[in-house]
Amino acid sequence: MDLFSRQSMWVNGPVIIGAGPSGLAVGACLKEQGVPFVILERADCIASLWQKRTYNRLKLHLPKKFCQLPLLPFPAHYPEYPSKSQFIEYLENYAAHFEINPKFNECVQTAKYDETLGLWRVRTSASTIEGGKVEVEYICRWLVVATGENAERVVPEFEGLSEFKGEVLHACDYKSGENYKGKRVLVVGCGNSGMELSLDLCNHNAFPSMVVRRSVHVLPREVMGKSTFEMITLLMKWLPLWLVDKLMVIIAWLVLGNIDKYGLKRPKMGPIQLKNTDGKTPVLDIGALAKIKSGDIKVVPGINKFSCGGVQLVDGHNLEIDAVVLATGYRSNVPSWLQESEFFSNNGFPRAPFPNGWKGKAGLYAVGFTRRGLAGASSDAVRIAGDIGNVWKEETKKIKQKSAACHRRCISQQF
What we know:
This protein is an alpha/beta fold. The chain has nine helices and 22 strands. Helix content is 30%, strand content 22%.
């Protein structure tokens, strides 16, 4: 029996690569425009990052109104900061509501624009139940890249890490601190994930040490019951960025105190400017800072090298540890499969800065690369669907007019 086959398929509309929140948002908006589409997803479910690569205690860091996708708000009974399970439930209901049915387990190998035909060729591979392999080439006019900023884990190289005898895992494989009770755990990274994993370990009676190699902005999640993010959004409408940055640093100092003495040095660049230029998101504190101040979470400097039972830090101190959690982030994987270099740069992000990074040439689009979370993805999804929808409706109108004209000619010839 032949266990390998190749197929070709014409898509009467765009191909969307990725069935995370960004891809689903584009699909829903295209549905409203009456445009057919195909969503390709390498995993076996929607929002695989959320379903398979996040820790159990995760909640949305921003209020729900800033995280809902176009055309369908969160249920009213959801809390201000929905949990991981609630957000997944929302996404599943979102897909069902708009009748979005991605093609799962189809991993894109290459996507290339055929200048001769003026069409995109997207090649995928998938395994069959019988153990065979199917390769499909999708041919389309529009290609929407929705694989996002966090497609692949980042695992830095550390001297001696292979010699370390304890457990080593990336944050995407961490679920709970339940199995680390009484253990000394080194958390590498001090972003939102690193802070929250350290807090979770602490709450499960582990002994976390968090590596802080560079400066970091820590902001309170709320100020007097008001979301810090919402406060920034409102201030940005009336004040210049530099002034909002200065105000946020002052507010953080008043609410959180001087965090420098705990090993958390603030960058010279303000939190919003740093986010816009380097994509480094400020940490929204949900309790980790109190554990740092109490000494339950130890802040340590950068890593020099690992040994079989511990780690040597750049300041010369040695720590005995039982496990390592790499909260070292993620990256885009676009350069590994998209054969295009004008719109996307080598780091897998659109070259044009926000808000102009959603549309390229020859029907190429990007969603979920704004470094502005779900709100940025939703905004781009609306733009993309509107742009494709305008062309689709105009061409559909012309086809109907041409068809009507042919029909009239046929009738006139009969008489």
